[in-house]
Task: structure prediction
Amino acid sequence: MGQARLRGTTEQRKAAAIDRQLALRPKFITCNNCQAQLTDMSPMDIAGLDGIQAAFTAHCPACGHDTYAIKGEREAVARLHMAIEDNVGAEAKAGVVPAANRPDPAA
Result:
């Protein structure tokens, strides 16, 4: 029997992957354009993106700018960042989610 089958059905494995990503969701993303704190964010589909643990996007209602939060290996994050730039056709600013913004593992 294959290892994947031991971890559950396809639906169970997908649900577990989504749960793992949502557990890494920051409390907010700071807009790279106007610095507003954005709490309404959507998880990005990271299936097949090796080295990416979680990715979220938020649209700023104040300035209309899209901002992304990406967690993963440095090289994989850089590749996804470049892919986003290619997709939107503009240079994207990189930022960092401060440790205080990360979810409390005890919560």
In short: The mean pLDDT is 81. The CA atoms of residues 50 and 76 lie 7 Å apart. The first helix runs from residue 3 to 6.
